[in-house]
Design brief:
This protein is mainly α. The chain is built from six helices and no strands. The protein is globular, with a radius of gyration of 15 Å. It starts with a helix and ends with a helix.
Length: 102
């Protein structure tokens, strides 16, 4: 199991945790809208770090983005494996061709 799969498994486990003792459980208990909002905030922070060429902060913010993306997916009961399968499906396909097929 790789790091993202381990993280996704931990997030799945936290669904039933006490929101007073788990940030993940607290976020999930607020619903998908809050999870999406938090993901957006983290994405903006990553964008700012990129624009400022702050490599260390961009690395940290990218980790936050990935965590919050998986939490957001979990809030809608979408498994990381589904996203990874979609990425695999797209492998070897030109981005231009893939977009045109939608």
């Amino acid at each position: 199991m790789n790091t993202l799969e381990t993280l996704a498994a931990t997030i799945r486990e936290r669904v039933s945790a006490d929101p007073e003792s788990s940030w993940t459980a607290k976020l999930l208990s607020c619903g998908p809208e809050k999870c999406a909002e938090k993901f957006g905030e983290e994405a903006i922070e990553a964008i700012v770090a990129c624009v400022k060429d702050d490599r260390d902060n961009l690395t940290a913010e990218a980790a936050d983005v990935m965590y919050h993306l998986i939490v957001m997916l979990q809030s809608r009961d979408i498994a990381l494996d589904s996203v990874l399968a979609e990425l695999s499906r797209r492998q070897g396909v030109s981005g231009i061709d893939e977009k045109a097929s939608r």
